[in-house]
């Protein structure tokens, strides 16, 4: 197993290295997500794309990220992303949040705008307005603010306003029968 090295005295018996101490990691306070503990092929995104800010992290300013971010620390300022944000139970956020989706377990003071979904879990506390395509609030969650849920109403475009008849001033005669026509670019 050992080779003799020229110039070294091998009369002393070889000693084995002391065993390394066992390293135990404390249980994470971050939420677990059901089947994400399962085998990797069932995940939609590799774990390397998930960013984690632990409880000892404090940020003041603008946070931008891609993919997923799990925050269990403190953020004050703005959070902007096309990705997914998870606010852990220990998180304390005072920020304007604009992301694709937000799952809140901790405290958020500020407005949340999500292009897809906002979920407030039972331990969540949100003080601010929420705008999202869908909103889910579990029993026990605290939400103080206004919510706008669903697809936003689009402002009329020029094509739709051109198709609407313009009202004519009253002239004392019988109103004309409505005229039918086709819009440019449509097939009749």
- From N to C, what is the helix and strand string? EEEEEEEEEEEEEH
Please provide the count of β strands.
Answer: 13
Q: How large is the count of helical segments?
A: 1
Q: What is the CA-CA span between the terminal residues?
A: 88 Å
* Residues in β-strands, percent: 35-45%
Which spans have pLDDT < 50 for at least 5 consecutive residues?
33-45, 153-162, 180-188
- Cα gyration radius (Å): 30 Å
Structural class: mainly beta
Q: What integer is the average pLDDT? A: 74
Largest sheet: 13 strands, parallel
Q: Oligomerization state of this entry?
A: single chain
Helix content: under 10%
The rough form would be described as: globular
Features:
188 residues; mainly beta; 13-stranded parallel sheet; 13 strands; globular; disordered C terminus
Explain what the structure shows:
The protein has 188 residues and is mainly β. The protein is built from 1 helix and 13 strands. The chain has one helix at residues 158-163, and strands spanning 50-53, 58-65, 68-71, 74-81, 84-87, 92-104, 107-109, 112-120, 125-127, 130-132, 134-137, 142-144, 147-149. The N and C termini lie far apart (88 Å).
How are the secondary structure elements laid out?
Elements: E1 50-53, E2 58-65, E3 68-71, E4 74-81, E5 84-87, E6 92-104, E7 107-109, E8 112-120, E9 125-127, E10 130-132, E11 134-137, E12 142-144, E13 147-149, H1 158-163
Parallel strand pairs: 1-3, 2-4, 3-5, 4-6, 5-6, 6-7, 6-8, 7-9, 8-10, 8-11, 9-12, 10-13
